[in-house]
Amino acid sequence: MNKNLWSARFSKELDALVNEFNQSIKVDSLMYAHDVMGSLAHAEMLKKQSVITESDFIEIEKGLNDILSDIESGALKIDMNAEDIHMFIEGELTKRYPEAGKKLHTARSRNDQVAVDVRLYLRDKTDEIMSSVKNLVSSIYEVASQNVDTVMPGYTHLQRAQPVTFAHHLMAYASMFMRDYDRLIDCKKRMNYSPLGSCALAGTTYPIDRVFTAEKLGFTAPTFNSMDGVSDRDFAVELCSAISLIMMHLSRFSEEIILWSSWEYKFIELDDGYSTGSSIMPQKKNPDIAELVRGKTGRAYGNLITLLTMLKGLPLAYNKDMQEDKEAVFDSVETVLKCLNVFAPMLKTMTVLKANMAKAAEKGFINATDCADYLAKKGMPFRSAYKITGQLVALCISKGVTMGELPLENYQEYSELFEQDIYDAIDMSTCLNKRTSEGGPSAVAVKKQLKIVESFLND
Question: In CATH, what number does 364-458 get?
Answer without folding.
Answer: 1.10.40.30
